[in-house]
Write a structure and sequence with these properties.
single chain, alpha/beta, TIM Barrel, two-stranded antiparallel sheet
């Protein structure tokens, strides 16, 4: 089973895989550059080669997440151009690192309205696809909590983007448990989980689901507040994560923790142990 956590690339992208091995992960998520800076440090050829070698040797599944500064739905021309350029660079980095999915929050309309924001995101993705016709890496839209003016908190919004993008077949979806819960999708019991996943399948299509973020929520159902909590210590509770882990439709997907790491990352070990205990033998 592909199970792990977001890992730091401090000292070199390959160090994230080493950290994943240390915590017995079979999958990890990384930033390919600093998540809170526009400028990207160049990936040297020896660093790339080392990353690819370790990834191959460990058979580690790796997905990436884009910078939080990027907003592909911005109504401001300068920020939109900057975001597109930055995202294009992140796609390039994923391509050379042989990372199949670049997870991204779709974008924020920042006050001009959801429809305008969604259409701008579609235009941005079409632009990015036109610049990367031969890339294997997939732009993977993440479900959001709906905080502020963030888009992607309704399955219908993600479906709209996928259906309107010219090459929608190149897109995937990342489901974040904390985000969908905060957005109002209940998953706390099996009946609610089944209802929510049925809605996802009918609206987007289960086959579009490529990555799952496993996060409990500090805030209650429908709060629209994005605050991750340790597994079992939030409003979702521990048991519902077993619904995802034991869903046969999801068995080949990477499950990634984005919970607080604690000192030296030891909370990753605690949270991963909780998840592993939920997997039916």
């Amino acid at each position: 089973m592909l199970l792990g956590a977001h890992m730091s690339i401090s000292g070199g992208v390959y160090n994230a895989i080493k950290a994943g091995v240390y915590f017995n992960c079979t999958a990890i998520q990384i930033f390919t550059k600093s998540s809170n800076q526009w400028k990207a440090r160049e990936l040297k050829s020896d660093e790339i080669d080392k990353f690819l070698k370790i990834k191959d040797e460990t058979d580690m599944a790796v997905v990436a997440h884009d910078s939080y500064l990027i907003n592909l739905g911005s109504p401001k021309a300068d920020l939109l151009e900057k975001s597109r350029e930055a995202f294009s660079e992140e796609l390039r980095r994923c391509e050379v690192l042989d990372i199949p999915h670049l997870v991204m929050h779709p974008g924020s309309h920042t006050g001009v309205g959801e429809q305008k924001g969604l259409d701008t995101i579609v235009e941005s993705i079409d632009f990015l696809h036109s610049k990367t016709p031969d890339y294997k890496v997939s732009i993977t839209l993440e479900t959001t909590a709906g905080q502020g003016t963030n888009l992607g908190y309704e399955f219908e919004q993600l479906a709209y983007i996928i259906n309107k993008v010219e090459q929608g077949d190149r897109l995937g979806v990342c489901l974040d448990t904390c985000h969908i819960f905060a957005a109002g999708y209940d998953i706390r019991d099996k009946k609610s989980y089944d209802r929510t996943m049925k809605q996802f399948d009918e609206t987007i299509g289960i086959e579009k689901l490529k990555v799952i973020h496993m996060n409990d929520s500090k805030k209650d159902l429908g709060s629209k507040v994005d605050r991750h909590e340790h597994i079992g210590l939030g409003f979702i509770g521990e048991a519902p994560f077993g619904f995802f882990l034991n869903d046969k439709r999801l068995k080949n997907l990477p499950f990634i923790l984005e919970t607080p790491k604690g000192e030296d990352g030891e909370m990753d070990r605690v949270n991963l142990a909780k998840l592993r205990n939920l997997i039916k033998k």
